[in-house]
Each structure stands twice: as structure tokens, then as C-alpha cells.
Amino acid sequence: MQRPLILLLLAALLLANSAAHAAGGLRVFCNMSGASVWLDGKAERSCPAKIVSSAGSHTLEVRKPIDADYEYYFKTQVNLPDGQPQKLDVELSKTYTEDGWYKRGDNDEYLQHYPNGKYAKTIQEQRSQAQAQELRAQREQAETERREAREAAEAERRAEREAHEFNTMSELAKGVAKLICLVKAKTGDDGKMFGAVTSG
To answer: pTM for the whole thing?
Structure first.
């Protein structure tokens, strides 16, 4: 009879000690009715709310939907101590919902608010595709610049060759223009001509 009683007493003491050290409380009051209170990403209850959770730091969110793109929202970090519950007065302000943040098109701002949101994977995939396209465009641009440089160098060499050939032909033409030939001819008794050509 004594052993079961001792075990029950020990169990009761352990439970009481655990509850005393593990439980923390918070009373949340809002500036508008119908708002839902979330603790560490889990919906608790409507405001005003009394929350009991493990002692320590927690993320508290309060939201009230307006439509698909807007809501009233509040977020803070709270430290739940052991013992007497704390009181927190919440002032909700109008902001975007997750869909609203995404529709705005500012992906950095969306990821700041919802790093693991339902559109986060899509945004990362879009960024990866954009980076791949940018790298491909950079490679194509570099190849175009190299090809244009080769073509420009070849055109310059061709122009130099043509200029050299032109100068050579010009000098040759000048030499030909100055060429004078003297033709001396004699006739023999039989009327045939013979002679020599000398440069003038």
C-alpha cells in the first residue's frame, strides 16, 4: 500500500515541478476584434487571448484578413517567463497578405516577409533561370566582341595590303610614264629594215 502511494506522490511532484518551470503565460489584447493570434506559426485563438506555452522566446503574430491582398497585421518577439502571465497590447496595422506581397513583384521584399512561403521556390527558380540567361547573354556578347575584333583586324590588314599594292602600282605607273624608247632603223639594198631599240 505504501509503495503505490509514494509513486503517486513522486509523480505529482514531478508534474508540478515541470509545469512550474516549463509554462509561461501571455494575455493579448488587440485594437480590433476578430483578429487571430499566432504563436510560432501556429494559430492559437481569437483576440483577446490568453496563451500558455513553454517559457522562453516565441514569435507572436496577430492578423485579421481584409481581402486576398490585404490584412491587418502585427508581429513581435515575446519572452514568456515562468509564473504570472504578461499582458501585451497589440496595435494592428494594414499591410499586404502573402499573396499581396507576391503580386507587388518585389521578390526581395516578399522573401524578407515569407522566406519559406508558398512562392519562395518559384522565385528561386525564376532567379536561377534569370542568372543562367544572363550568363548565356554575357558569353554571347563576349563571343560577338571577339568576332568583331577579328573582323576589324582582318579588315585593317586587308586595307594595308591594298594600300601597299596601290602604292606599288602607282610607282610602277610613274616609271612606265617616263619610259622613252628610241627606235633606229636602217634599210638595206633589198629594202629590208634592221635596227636596234635603246632606252632613251
So the answer is: 0.52
